[in-house]
Q: What sequence folds into this?
């Protein structure tokens, strides 16, 4: 393929991706994020496999940069997903017995407030 065809495919893919993602309701954001992280993990595995037979310094450098950014994306995505799912966990009421770590956090909060 020539350069113009490849650029046209890139622009169309970016436009379609933006339109699809912008139509996702908020309730589906967390499951979609988890699926995207899983897919990106597979992409990282492919990049690690490709770096072995790559020839030339520039190819190695670009693959290392891609792997670093991909790793940051996957780890950050899982952290954000975990934090979002933590928002849906039920918190114990004041009268219920909490786990010891939650009791410690509650005691620390009372000390800071008082």
A:
């Amino acid at each position: 393929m020539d350069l113009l065809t490849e650029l046209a495919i890139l622009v169309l893919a970016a436009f379609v991706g933006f339109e699809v993602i912008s139509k996702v309701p908020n309730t589906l954001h967390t499951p979609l994020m988890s699926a995207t992280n899983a897919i990106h993990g597979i992409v990282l595995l492919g990049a690690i496999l490709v770096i072995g037979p790559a020839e030339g310094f520039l190819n190695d450098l670009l693959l290392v940069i891609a792997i670093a950014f991909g790793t940051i994306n996957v780890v950050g995505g899982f952290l954000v997903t975990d934090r979002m799912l933590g928002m849906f966990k039920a918190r114990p009421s004041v009268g219920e017995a909490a786990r010891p770590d939650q009791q410690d956090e509650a005691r620390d909060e009372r000390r800071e407030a008082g």
In short: The first helix runs from residue 3 to 22. The two ends are 69 Å apart (CA to CA).
